[in-house]
Specification:
Layout lengths: L1 H19 L5 E3 L2 H4 L27 E4 L8 E4 L8 E7 L2 E4 L1 H4 L8 E7 L8 E6 L11 E5 L5 E3 L1 H4 L7 E7 L8 E6 L24 E6 L2 E4 L14 E7 L8 E6 L6 E5 L5 E3 L1 H4 L3 E2 L5 E4 L8 E4 L7 H4 L8 H9 L6 E2 L3 E5 L5 E3 L1 H4 L7 E7 L8 E6 L1 E3 L4 H7 L2 H9 L4 H5 L4 E2 L1 E2 L1 E4 L7 E2 L9 E2 L1 E7 L8 E6 L5 E5 L5 E8 L11 E6 L2 E6 L3 E2 L3 E2 L4 E6 L4 E7 L4 E8 L4 E5 L5 E2 L2 H4 L7 E3 L1 H4 L12 H4 L14 E4 L8 E4 L8 E5 L5 E4 L1 H5 L6 E7 L8 E6 L14 E5 L5 E3 L9 E8 L8 E8 L11 E5 L5 E3 L1 H4 L8 E8 L8 E9 L2 E5 L4 E3 L16 E2 L2 E5 L8 E5 ...
Parallel strand pairs: 18-21, 35-43
Antiparallel strand pairs: 1-34, 2-3, 3-4, 4-5, 6-7, 7-8, 8-9, 10-11, 11-12, 12-13, 14-15, 15-16, 16-17, 19-20, 20-22, 22-23, 24-25, 25-29, 26-27, 28-31, 29-30, 32-33, 33-34, 35-40, 36-37, 36-41, 38-39, 41-42, 42-44, 45-77, 46-47, 47-48, 48-49, 50-51, 51-52, 52-53, 54-55, 55-56, 56-57, 58-59, ...
Amino acid sequence: MRSRLFLFFILIASQFLFSCRKQTLFEQVPSTYTHIYFKNELHDSDSLSILDYLYFYNGGGVAVGDINNDGLQDIFFTSNKKGGNKLYLNKGGFQFEDITQKAGVKGDADWSTGVTMADVNGDGLPDIYVCTVSGKFNLKGHNELYINNGDLSFTERSAEFGLAFHDYSTQAAFFDYDKDGDLDCYLLNQSDHLVDVIRDTSVRRKYSPEAGDRLLRNDDGKFTDVTSKAGIYGSGLGYGLGIAVGDLNNDGWDDIYVGNDFHENDYYYVNNRDGTFSEIGASAFGHYSRFSMGNDMADYNNDGLLDLVTMDMLPPDESVLKTYGGDDALDIYKYKLINMGFQYQYSRNALQRNNDGKHFSEMALYAGIAATDWSWAPLLADFDNDGIKDLFVSNGIMRRPSDLDYLKFIYNSNVQEILDKSRKNDASILNLMPPGKSHNYMFKGSAQEKFRDESAAWGMDFVGISNGAAYVDLDNDGDLDLVVNRMNDPAGIYRNNTSGRNFLDIKLKGSGKNGFGIGTKIYLFAGGKMQLQQQQPTRGFQSSVSPVVHFGLDSLELVDSLIVVWPNLKLEKLHHIVPNRVLELKQEDASDSFMVQELMPPATPLFKNITEDLSIPWKHSEDSFFDFNVQAFIPHEESTLGPKLAVGDLNGDGIEDFFVCGAKKWPGAMFIQEADGKFTRTNENLFQEDAAMEDVDALFFDADGDKDLDLYVVSGGNEYSGQSPLLNDRLYLNDGKGNFIKSDGLPPMFANKSCVSVADIDGDGDQDIFVGGRTDAKSYGNIPESYLLLNDGKGHFRIATNEWAPGLRNVGMVSAAKFADLNRDGKPDLVLVGEWMPLTIFMNTGNQLKKSPKNCAGSMANCQLSSGWWQSLEISDVDGNGYPDIIAGNYGLNSKLTASAEFPLKLFLLDYDNNGRQDQILANVSKGKYYSFLGKDELEKQLPVIKKKYLQYRGFAGKTMEEVFGDKLSSAKILQASTMASAIFMNDGKGNFKMKELPMPAQLSPIFGILAVDLDGDGKKELVCGGNFYGVQPYEGRYDASYGIVLKQDGHGNFFPLSMSESGLIVTGETRDIKTIQGPRGYPYILVARNNDSLMVFKQSMSTFHPAPGQ
């Protein structure tokens, strides 16, 4: 009696504490209430620890499913000790019963990892497949398949089904890859070798019986290994930690994405629909997470394409970040990864936005989810029922083996010898690893494709070690709860308190042996929007979620329609569905055949790639110059900014020709267009003479007044300095027939320059020239000279900068310039942008170019609030008010580098060690304080004194700029950038320019090429943009998310992006310039110049081409 009363009071107290706590979206239900006492207890020991087993701290998984078909979802946990797995029966109201013993599922393996619930034998009941690690470290056991007997008991039958693997398994995903009606299996395994042993990619095709991944075909209940035959890598090279399955390319067949830890690439297997797969990751992704952990596949932006998110270990806190051994220095990075044949990888979470199933844009930095510390399970789901998916991330590790102080110690040869001889020092060595407990993260999704961190507000305040996780509606109240497997703490059961928003849950009944309809795609249409879900329980990390498909509907009171595409590609349509219920659907009711083209009819693309048709025989080739070897602290390379293009009719035949800039040792090239639209190279010997120069910009104009187009070529490239003659620009004069000779009409200009623009600034009838200075090739941050050249009318020029444009000579680090009549007074004004520069305007008074007055309250022109890392410029009247607007390409918002009016990005120029050399210290803000962007190792390359000041990384970590550099900062020159967003500056005709950020796709990489042109004849200018930039350190990570962008507008300067399928513009690599060139009969081509690559040419589709009058 006393024991019953005691239990009663505990329950009452638990409910009281549970209900009285300030309510958040998620509320942790105590184990005293749920009766879930599972804890994955794990501690380093003398016999086994992380010193032995790399994945000792990876923890266990979670699987949820209704094992007895009572409408309540039950829970299974895996443990890293023999017999520690647990199965809990859901009794309703967040009450659970431990039925592990009587169900017979505690497990006999020494070490269990991932778990999946799936109907393996096709009887309509969820079975349980547990992955294990065995065959090393004296761990015994095999993967276990528990077949559901239908009476709350299970029988282990893995050997009978061919699934009793004795290897290093992480997780299994069941799906019908060959559409024969039963579930096949992908078994994700861990590597069998140490991470220090970096093998090149040639070993991918070498089958490993213990460590390689497996594709297992279900042949009437017996699983057959078809790994090699199907084109799956089964080698020991992969460190498989994440598996996601779904139809990424929208062809109706399930594809596979595998996340690999360490140096091996992630794998993207496209289903060939013939029983085989093709791994196309290299062409589909610009880069991956370096330490890929768990992953998820879901349509986070509701565009009808499944996207991908992968977890990594990037810490958001400066005190941990600067002790974290994530990305190597560039030389080591290239040796360990790129030279070995691996793809680019960066230590941060990755959000791969799906553009068309073949091209993905990684945008986790833009989305705000790149740094969540030591993360395991990402789960994309609509947790607040607003119709937009949110992101949960499980987090934490017992100790941090990537701590740089620990790594420096452990890789000492003497320490290695001690470890090899005895284990008596293991405990003291383990204690050198800092603890890594953390809270889990919860991000709220948005229609703008950004996620807001709501961890605290949504109840994720528990600090611990969370590994596997699953979402599930445990109490059938229409929102998704969370179950988390924790290490050394009781499992986390989180109740979702969402209320007042509608939902629709869908329970699928498949045909044949796929009872839960794995692979089914559901399109929901409501309120003018679409949502897509695909049925696949295996998600996150070592876990599987509820098989009940959940849609949040916000305030919508009716679902207009559902389109359900079953795995056999049969289609079912439903209309006018009332929400707030569980809708049960059966595959046998589907009769129509599904065609993706009917659901999402393909648009006629605006452009067609005709590069191969024209076959222009030229490629831009960079030399081996490496900016960081000359200036270790330069923020990024300045030598890879070409090539630029110049377009014009050079021989008077009425057809446009072009010149493309060359790189050092590889001359620029001039191409004459023939009547058939093909191009012929000309004047080759002339440009070969100047091959030692680096061309950075070019322009056709009539320099000598003879009515034909001459060529001006700008020299730069960041290699030459001082009085090097290789810095002088070149003027080539045209004889009217396309034959050029080099002129001596230019004065010497020994600056590292960037751009050229021409106009008749003095009204004398000839063209004058502005040439922008880019950088000091020996000391980035020093302002180079820019030039204003006046023409004598015969093609001879003199420098007139000081007399005509006070303040222009050292205006800044100019990257782009254009003349335009901004105020319609008939005189050309000068517009400039550059790095660490605001939008800068010099107005033409008739006898002077005068910098317009600063008025930050009304205009962004010459205002520090518009300072950025501007790279490109276009001027056009986009809103039709008669005044030219300014479009400027910036560095973008998909970056670790951030800038705002309150906290601008800063570059401190100082001589810290008094050696007479300027040090450039780039500083970023975190939580309101400025820190060096570079870590201790990188700073020490140029400043050895830092090593003396901070002997350990932990002493340097978390130190602000003031703490590290002290009084030296007070005398430093500071450059600032207040925005990194590419933008349009709207001209109101009164001298004011209002800044508007361009849409999201234009913010995913630096923009180097912008073209404003009316493509569809509607009188409104579209913008065609291109970018990407690879010349950065690994810690920053290359910018490769852009494939070219087409932005349409509403006539008022408001732009919206076309999808890749709508635009047809798919440009890979680093775009540096975009120009239109008229082809035969006035047909417009889009010419794209790429760094270190060939040219690309696109033409408009006939159905979208509207020729100008008279053509």
